Amino acid sequence: MLEPTPSDLSSQVQSLLDYCAQLERQNRQLRERQQSLLQERNRLRIVRDETQKQVEAMIDRLRAMER
What we know:
Blueprint: H1 6-66
């Protein structure tokens, strides 16, 4: 079995470092996307809650008008 040369090892190490850097970039992008989605979800929950309160208030007014 042939032992890898220092040049081969250096090339493999560089490839691993490049791959690691790529994974770090992807991880950062995914975390940023996740944060953005969480913020959007929270904003939509607030809008939903406000809308629900408005609808409930309209229903209460309609019921009051029926009396």
